[in-house]
Amino acid sequence: MYKLLIVDDEQSVRYSFKKLFNSSNYTFNEASNADEAIASFKKERPSLVILDIEMPGRDGIQVLKELKELSPKTPVIIITAYGSGDRVIKAMKYGAYEYIEKPFDIPRLMVVIEEALKNSVSEEESAATEPFKKKLPAIKSEEVLVGESTAIKEVFKLIGRVATSDASILIVGESGTGKELVAKAIHNYSDRAAKQFIAINCAAIPENLLESELFGYEKGAFTGADKQKIGKFEEANGGTLFLDEIGDMSLSLQAKLLRILQEGTLERLGGNKTLKVDARIVAATNRNLENDIISKAFREDLYYRLKVITISLPPLRMRKEDIPLLTRHFLRRHSSGTKGETISLHPDSMKQLLDYNWPGNIRELENVIKRAVILAKGSVISPDLLFEGVERQVLQSSPERSRLSAYLNANIISNEGEVYKLAIEEFEKDLIMWALKKTGGNQVQTAKLLGISRVMLHERIDKFKLK
């Protein structure tokens, strides 16, 4: 029998849960505020806690931290009527099992609760872990992650889960989707937040300069090296190093990066002293690194070292419900102090923004809003200001739609925020099945035909259950 503790200041919500779990498999306790919740938890030791965030007095995040100090392994499901990115990330960082918004999707809620109960471990079976005591840093407004779509909420949850780990992270997504913001969020919510966050764009610096920027150099290492200089890895020691556009790094530098990831050591240019470095590596790319591996432009061993955890950022066209929220965010940022008044958007202007395809993603949206704020003659941005002089994206032609329809079935389209990933996987599965059939199931010949390594082929066969 499972003991459940429901914590919500609304009696109607607690009553609904009572009816939902009215069976001999559950016993039920309830609390309407933080103090009642802590007291009930200490007395009853429930198997699972369902916890609201918005409550009088101490909020659900504070209660979550205290519950996790009392019993780190008891699953806590956070429920709320509104979830900001900051709240979602904090909840997952402090150990929430899942974060669910009201109104509830009852079947999904039941699945989550059943999974949590199956995976829960009693306090007697688990060793106490160090509670989270570190205060989160203040986050600048320009570093705030904005969005309410299902796709971006999943990203928020993943950030919260991985922030306290030191594992390498690979962030993938199109240009302008906010990869550096995600990297900063991972750093800001981590135990390394008090140390440096160092960012470097691997595509913006020539190879010879990039090497000295990353690894530093000793005096006299080359012409013009008149004094010692520490590199970005040393600057980020104890903190986080963000390597943007990692796919543009040369193979020789990739080999040096691999050594640091494997051994945690480096040597400055012109030096012979081995230095220990402890920087968490977060890398990002808008390229398909698996294709680069096939073309020998990227090291396969480095790829698997970097992608311990992968965070995929959806393009803006796949999360259009976030456009109004992002637009308000950029209007506040760029209109403050511009004309001494609050600037808003005409309803027809918002329709234009929602209809546009956004090839440049969030960065393009911000630039469009910034430009419109500067050019606006009054306090309302009219439609004609938004895309003046900008070539609009055209709709797909009929043959393109026909080709896409083979991989955009109803099941894939219904998975909001996952369409890109699922459609690509469907094509990849078909391609590997075709190659296996063509070679009579010979995996060596299949890998050769596709131009991929046997390791990658085995990984895909396992992933798609093609054995």
Features:
Rossmann fold, 14 strands, alpha/beta, 5-stranded parallel beta sheet, 467 residues, Helicase, Ruva Protein, domain 3
Task: Tell me what you see in this structure.
The protein has 467 residues and is an alpha/beta fold. It has four domains: 2-125, Response regulator (Rossmann fold, 3-Layer(aba) Sandwich); 144-312, P-loop containing nucleotide triphosphate hydrolases (Rossmann fold, 3-Layer(aba) Sandwich), CATH 3.40.50; 325-386, Helicase, Ruva Protein, domain 3; 403-463, Arc Repressor Mutant, subunit A. 45% of the residues lie in helices and 12% in strands. The protein contains 21 helices and 14 strands. It has helices at residues 11-20, 34-44, 60-70, 85-93, 106-119, 150-162, 179-188, 207-215, 232-235, 251-263, 289-294, 300-306, 323-335, 347-355, 361-375, 383-386, 398-405, 410-413, 419-438, 443-450, 454-463, and strands at 2-7, 26-31, 48-52, 76-80, 98-101, 169-172, 197-201, 240-244, 265-266, 275-276, 280-285, 309-312, 344-345, 380-381. Strands 2-1-3-4-5 form a five-stranded parallel beta sheet, sandwiched between helices. Strands 7-8-11-6-12 form a five-stranded parallel beta sheet. Strands 9-10 form a two-stranded antiparallel sheet.
